[in-house]
Amino acid sequence: MPEPIEAILRKPFPHQVAAFRLRLGNLVPSSAWNDLAGSANDRGFMVAGAVKADLLADLAAAVDRSITEGTGFEAFKQDFRSIVAKRGWTGWTGEDTEAGQAWRMRTVYHTNMRTSYMGGRLAQLREGNFPFWVYRHGGSAEPRLQHLAWDGLILPSDHPFWLKHFPPNGFGCNCRIVGASSMAGAIRRGGDPTKVLQDGWDQVNPNTGRLDGIGEGWDHAPAGSVSDMVQTMASKTINWPYSISRAYMDDLPASAQDAHSTAYRNLYSLHEDIRRYADAVADGRSVAPIRTMGRLSQSHRRRIAEVSGRDLENYHFTLDDSAVRHFLSSHGSVSEALRGQFQINQDNLALLPRLLDRPDSIEAAGITRAGHPIVRFTRQFGAQVYTVAMEIRDKKHHMLAVQNMWGRQVSN
User: Fold this and answer.
1) Residue boundaries of the structural domains of the chain
2) Which of 24, 40, 199, 204 has the fewest CB atoms within 10 Å, i.e. the most exposed one?
């Protein structure tokens, strides 16, 4: 039995991420879903009705995180709702009812996940030089009859059929292609050598104006026009240094890096992940030793250069498990009140990405015993002022790492 589509889409792989990342350098304002046609989708990201740049950047970051980190549909829904509220986005299709909202969120999520997934698979199939490709139906309960008719079709990899019929072939299509090195291998992978293309498979149906079985705007192979670039980008991310997200963020087009990183740090699901990360550390459970909170923006670099004289090009904000243990042990007790500070807990730590993204002030704060420079970020949330000490780790690591965090109450 084939894996459920949700399980498949939560297993990101470098080619899939590269296929999506090639679109992030071109955020396209749009009023309708078909404003980008055919292969133009390979180089542009859009959400129908989203016309403002900051809204598009936030939505792109939410989709990107779903793809690169496999966070799933529930996390995407949280991010989508948070973005809509924050940006005041109204008038979008599906907004008026709960069912409509659920449909719209699933459409945005599934379409981007599926096209990037199959775009990555296309790059892999071409990279593997499989001489035979097999069309496999996605197994939906209510199948498109034409897609079902193609299930098991075996064709050479260079057959013109694949130029327009490589799935997905419409909204919600879960069909896929598998490669084989021989006819016997194609049969083992579900191919049926008795199945052949019917006459007229490449002719537009005069009643619909489209090829039979192909939805409007889906008559192209996803990422087919850029699959060579997908392969090149994917090869750079095979060996991730410590975080899959870091490698992918560094491969973004320079024009998209700041918008993406800011949107990433403001994702609701990222804040929840930081909270869960801190919970796991507090409970003594095993966690990834280091995680990224996104690249420093150009604004961060300028402000830090002004106070420290250092240009932190290609640096990331990072958090590690030892820093969390230090916060919770040194600043997580009720004795903090004696020093005029409040107790730091997991809820406070969840504010870290937002604090670092838009601090009220940044100042130099000496050096560590190991000789690493320290810069101090401060931001006020309501009646609470938070300060975070960040350690500049050397150029080999390119990290601005959280070292300490404390807070004090102020009167309004």
Assistant:
1) 5-235, 244-409
2) 199
